[in-house]
Amino acid sequence: MKLAMLARNATLYSHRRIVEAARARGHDIDVINTLQVHMNITSSHPVLRHGGKTLPVYDAIIPRIGASVTHYGLAVLRQFEIQGVFPLNESVAIGRSRDKLRALQLLAREGIGMPVTAFAHGPRKAEDVIKEVGGAPCVIKLLEGTQGMGVILAETFPSAKSIIEAFSAANINILVQEYIKEAAGSDVRAFVVGGEVVAAMKRTGRSGDFRSNLHRGGKAEGIKLNDDEQRTAIRAAEILGLNVCGVDMLRAKRGPVVIEVNSSPGIEGMETATGVDIATSMIQFLERRAAPHSTATKGAG
Q1: Which has the least CB within 10 A, 6, 125, 150, 182?
Q2: Is residue 162 helix, strand or coil?
Q3: Is residue 299 assigned to a domain?
Q4: pLDDT of 32 over the 90 cut
Q5: For the domain that residue 259 is a member of, what is the CATH number?
Q6: 78 and 6 in one domain?
């Protein structure tokens, strides 16, 4: 097959591994800088150009769209979809997952376990929001935060109220969530590919930090999920419409609770912790699902 990957930095571990896995299985793959693509939106003849050349019609597209360029990246991905190119994750599904509030609303509607979450506009609602999630300590999250940035643990009621009021005054949207004490600074990530958990790891934050993100110095170890965790991860991916994703969960007394679903998860930590070849699993999924396009082998015009 002829594959393309949308990625701004081709040297990142995840992107290099995906390219290696594709070529090892005999596929051609081009890495395309998302922000250097421009589109000609013409009736009945959608065209994408990159580096002054018209791009060929690919068999499949692998979107690795950074959070900071979500809007433009999804526009580019939609143009590929209009050409009939099979996406590893569809633009609509990525959009759902990137909107944290919408994602949580969809998961809640389907009965997925989650921390109690509150959302309100304006500083006058601060006290009500804190009480809604069971009081302090509570977790305050920026809707646009990634990799643990914009996630704050407010340990007392006054500090939570002050933080919420400060963000509200700056017109910054936040979520307030119940603090799952028994998680003890650890979470679980399940890597889902094609409706199956192919690997899972437990991430533990560095001493003194309740956030477990590896980018913030956390540690990871490969684990085996229990049946409830497996079902929750697979169902969360299905609800959001994602073929490939990382489902982050906390182990609460009442069972697994989903805190985030990442539509473009890094694979370095997971491959290192588990020894599972995640990149090849992703390419094998495309082999099963993407039909070769009759014009995909033609060069750029």
Answers
A1: 182
A2: helix
A3: no
A4: yes
A5: 3.30.470.20
A6: yes
Q: Residue 69's domain spans which residues?
A: 2-89+284-289
pTM given for the model: 0.89
Q: How many domains does the chain have?
A: 3
Lowest mean pLDDT among 122-131, 158-167, 255-264, 268-277: 122-131
User: Residue 272: what residue type?
Assistant: T
| Edge-to-edge order in the sheet of strand 174-178 | 117-118, 174-178, 138-142, 151-154
Across 227-231, average pLDDT: 98
pLDDT in tens, 136-163: 999 998 876 555 567 899 999 999 999 9
3-state SS string for the chain: CEEEEECCCCCCHHHHHHHHHHHHCCCEEEEECHHHEEEECCCCCCEEEECCEECCCCCEEEECCCHHHHHHHHHHHHHHHHCCCEECCCHHHHHHHHCHHHHHHHHHHCCCCCCCEECCCCHHHHHHHHHHCCCCCEEEEECCCCCCCCEEEECCHHHHHHHHHHHHHCCCCEEEEECCHHHCCEEEEEEEECCEEEEEEEEECCCCCCCCCHHHCCEEEECCCCHHHHHHHHHHHHHHCCCEEEEEEEEECCEEEEEEEECCCCCHHHHHHHCCCHHHHHHHHHHHHCCCCCCCCCCCC
Same domain membership, residue 100 and residue 207:
yes
Kindly state whether residue 254 falls inside one of the protein's structural domains. yes
- Same structural domain, 196 and 248: yes
